[in-house]
Write a structure and sequence with these properties.
protein biosynthesis, 21% helix, five-stranded mixed beta sheet, RNA-binding, alpha+beta, single chain, 553 residues, ten-stranded mixed beta sheet, translation initiation factor activity
Length: 553
């Protein structure tokens, strides 16, 4: 008896493309992933449900060791499969090898545990000590830089060009609170595309005392070195909101945005940052104040932040070359060098008294510093009115009082230490200064770019750079000056490929985002391990608890 034959339902793809149609796919196959294939594959191979691996052994025995071929083996070379991950679309790999695990320290140290004169407290060129929780004007070691390195996957490649070198995991400059609300996340790739042209700024006022630069330091070289002296000179690094002159301009509605040159330089050079930092954004009415956080990273300089092999985070009593120890040493060197190069008998220029100095509280003399308040126009058209007032600093004048300069110092610690790998300054600075400068531009790209931007913001004619080396590589207490060099800030920025227009574009973008938010306190944080910045809404008392703990200590 003949059986009736019924044709199956054929699902035709109406759009004519390869593979099943999303509109006519049967319900029982709706959630099954589609395995992509190539048009060059034979139809028999596309519809082949045999297991090549299972039949491989039998085929090998039957054919004298010749294994059966698979779909991928039959594909012509150079042809791509339609879709992605054709080979392992349905694959699952469970690796029980211990090398696939990563060990990361979860007990990151809370940031913001130092005191560095953020609210008008003075700093002095004191002798560096081991990192401690400093108070008052004395230098304190930066925190939030430590952490355990993440163990990389795999093994067996040891010594092969550092391929399996453990990846460093850095700590955030500030502990992200559980009640903080993330508003924005911006990648560096987006920031690099921003541009804004800014005209010559308007000079508002100047405060402080300025003295002449001692030109005898220009003749220092490796054969005529000079010891670095320890000088007690009072310097102030007051944050924006605590600046009485800024308050006067804010009350008069002179601008909508207010900042200091150090804060603005970090923001303008954001794409060069590697270490984490944070900037507090205070929205008051229709105005925006860019502040540094008490005990934050703005009190200290970084060393070899951009190096391929930066200084280790591990700290200890005998580790003079850790990241935190070098940061403290570099800050100490800069403060003393900028005071030492001042000609003691030069005539002081004081347009207005220092607004932060109090003779009743301070006994040491003031360092040569002139605070210049300058207004920049950030408007993009004539109808718009958006200005920023910046408190800038210069360290000395050369010849005439209107020839202003900034003074900075680069430090050499140990050419053989991890993260150094540089030419010995004592042997090569006089003959290969260009190579040494190029190496510093590479290893300290973020720091040098910020110095150049700060000098540009201040309207300085030149930037004096000192080369300071340890008298003994194993002694971080004694240093010698082995050379100096002078640069024009704009030309130096151009040599480092620093785009001022891009920096102003970043400032304008962050300002637009912040000014659209309601009144309150916000914080901009650079991710410690990725090229990303994030904007958070924080409570008004977010950082007061840390301040109270420091007062108790």
């Amino acid at each position: 008896m003949a059986l009736d034959f019924v044709l199956p339902v054929i699902h035709d793809n109406e759009d004519g493309s390869w593979g099943p149609s999303t509109s006519t796919i049967p319900a029982q196959f709706k959630d099954i992933p589609y395995a992509p294939f190539s048009k060059s594959d034979k139809i028999t191979r596309i519809a082949d449900w045999h297991d090549p691996a299972a039949e491989g052994a039998a085929s090998s025995n039957a054919r004298g060791g010749r294994q059966a071929f698979s779909v991928s083996a039959n594909r012509r070379p150079g042809r791509e499969a339609y879709g992605a991950s054709e080979v392992n679309a349905f694959g699952y790999v469970h690796d029980e090898d211990e090398k696939s695990f990563s060990l990361v320290d979860s007990s990151s140290r809370a940031a913001g545990r130092g005191r560095g004169g953020a609210r008008g407290r003075a700093t002095r060129g004191v002798q560096p000590a081991r990192p401690t929780a400093g108070r008052g004007g004395r230098l304190a070691a930066p925190t939030g830089r430590g952490g355990f390195a993440q163990r990389g996957r795999g093994g067996g490649r040891g010594g092969y060009g550092g391929y399996d070198k453990p990846q460093r995991t850095r700590d955030s400059s500030v502990t992200i609170g559980a009640d903080w609300q993330q508003l924005e996340e911006i990648e560096f790739s987006r920031l690099n595309k921003l541009n804004l042209g800014v005209d010559t700024p308007e000079e508002l006022s100047s405060y402080g005392t300025l003295q002449a630069y001692d030109r005898t330091f220009d003749r220092i070289n490796t054969r005529n070195e000079k010891p670095l002296e320890i000088l007690d000179r009072v310097r102030y690094n007051t944050t924006t909101s605590d600046d009485p002159i800024i308050h006067q301009y804010a009350d008069k509605k002179e601008a909508q945005i207010f900042a200091t040159d150090s804060i603005l330089a970090v923001l303008m050079c954001t794409p060069r940052s590697v270490n984490s930092w944070d900037i507090v954004l205070d929205r008051r009415g229709d105005q925006l104040f860019l502040d540094k956080r008490e005990g934050g990273p703005f009190e200290f300089l970084t060393v070899n932040e951009n190096a391929a092999d930066p200084p280790p985070d591990a700290d200890g009593d005998n580790n003079l070359n850790s990241a935190s120890s070098l940061s403290l040493e570099a800050t100490y060197i800069n403060q003393n060098f900028s005071s030492q190069v001042i000609e003691a008998k030069s005539k002081a220029y004081t347009p207005r008294p220092n607004p932060f100095y109090s003779p009743e509280e301070e006994s040491e003399p003031l360092a040569s510093t002139l605070y210049r308040y300058r207004k920049f126009d950030l408007s993009v058209n004539e109808e718009e009115d958006l200005n920023i007032i910046v408190r800038t600093e210069v360290d000395a004048y050369v010849g005439k009082r209107d020839h202003l300069i900034t003074v900075k110092a680069l430090n050499e610690y140990d050419s053989r230490a991890q993260g150094a790998k540089v030419l010995d300054w004592r042997k090569n600075l006089d003959t290969q200064k260009g190579a040494i400068v190029a190496n510093e531009m590479k290893n300290n790209s973020a720091k040098l770019a910020r110095w150049a931007v700060q000098s540009y913001l201040a309207g300085a004619e030149a930037m004096k750079m000192g080369y300071i080396s340890r008298a003994n590589p194993r002694d971080a207490q004694r240093h010698v000056i082995v050379g100096t060099q002078s640069y024009k800030p704009v030309e130096f920025a151009r040599q480092m490929n620093v785009s001022l227009a891009n920096g102003w574009g970043i400032v304008r973008t962050i300002a637009d985002i912040a000014l659209k938010q309601p009144e309150g306190k916000y914080i901009l944080v650079k991710d410690p391990n990725h090229p990303i910045i994030r904007l958070y809404k924080v409570p008004e008392d977010a950082f007061e608890a840390i301040d109270e703990e420091e007062e108790e200590e």
